[in-house]
């Protein structure tokens, strides 16, 4: 038994409080794990959902795997991305090309801004 002034100076069984804390902690960890698995499952469903655009599916795949879509149009990973996102290889290559064009457009704008400001 322990003495707790916050409880009006009453004695309480500290092992019960400790056991409750541990049980609460275990429950919280189990809940967090369950939520993490649920998010993972939802993300996996979105990765293959027809309601997600090819760009969204590929971004989800990249986030889940910590990788970016290769720039090489013949890279072996493109087949894996296509299979795991349930996209056609051509759709993956279209997204790849869109990204290259976007990057090239940004570079062109930046170089135009640099050259116009240098006069």
Characterize this entry briefly.
This protein is mostly helical.
How many helices does DSSP assign? 4
- Provide the structure class: mainly alpha
Major sheet description = 2 strands, antiparallel
The SSE order reads: EEHHHH
Give an overview in words.
- The protein is mainly α.
- It has one domain (10-117).
- Helix content is 71%, strand content 5%.
- It is built from four helices and two strands.
- It has helices at residues 14-48, 54-65, 77-85, 89-117; strands at residues 2-4, 10-12.
- Strands 1-2 form a two-stranded antiparallel ribbon.
- A hairpin with a 5-residue loop joins strand 1 and strand 2 (10-12).
- Helix 1 (14-48) packs across helix 2 and helix 3 packs across helix 4.
- The mean pLDDT is 85.
What layout of secondary structure does this protein have?
Elements: E1 2-4, E2 10-12, H1 14-48, H2 54-65, H3 77-85, H4 89-117
Antiparallel strand pairs: 1-2
Highlighted features:
two-stranded antiparallel sheet; elongated
